[in-house]
Amino acid sequence: xxxxSTKLGEVDExxxxxxxxxxxxxxxxxxxxxxxxxxRIGLQAWEDDVVQGESVTRMLLAEHNMKLRYFRHxxxxxxxxxxxxxxxxxxxxxxxxxxxxxxxDAWDWMYAGVYEDAKxxxxxxxxxxxxxxxxxxxxxxxxxxxxxxxxxxxxEPKQILLLHGNQLEADHIGAxxxxxxxxxxxxxxxxxxxxxxxxxxxxxxxxEEGAGWIEHWAITLGKPPQGAPVFPQWVIERSKALGQPQx
Length: 247
Hints:
Elements: H1 10-23, H2 38-41, H3 43-52, H4 55-63, E1 70-71, H5 84-94, E2 98-99, H6 108-121, H7 124-153, H8 167-183, H9 213-220, H10 233-241
Parallel strand pairs: 1-2
Helix pairs in contact: 1-4, 6-7, 6-10, 7-8, 7-9
């Protein structure tokens, strides 16, 4: 967290929020200092960003007699150079990390920026349109991930869903939970690394853009996934118009 690039007191507020997560029994992980993609800045700069991202998190975990164990790649970018994934993983393992996988990602962050702008402007019609689209796209992704898992490894493992802390989730997490129930989705809520065999499968995935771990396994096994849901282009265009970061 750079004090020079944040408003006075903002760093303390962020640390307060992280302490709340720990006080409620959750565990923190490292996501790099500046959310840098391994695919874009190179291995050495990325490693430096990982180390820089540890300072506050390690301190807060130590207050609860916990150690920093988990790392999740920004953008799910694990490397586009066949040499980089092995090098980056060795670096992370040497620092005591386990890589946190993701199998379900409905891009809530892309919806969230547009939703928050609509809410600030009082555009309730757009908020409703975004919410409906997000829930529909999530349901489509749930079904796709379940089918892809069964096609790739023969069964559906415990799924790991990527969500972000944003106003969209705060307002509609109940509806999303109902979607889980309707889809009979099997999620892993444990605070340990999943122990099902799928998460021990070989993973040699490299790519320009990040992907979920079921896609990793499918590509590694020579079964490139097909028929992935297409993210709504109109949401992307609205996000771009707001100048928000794109994947």
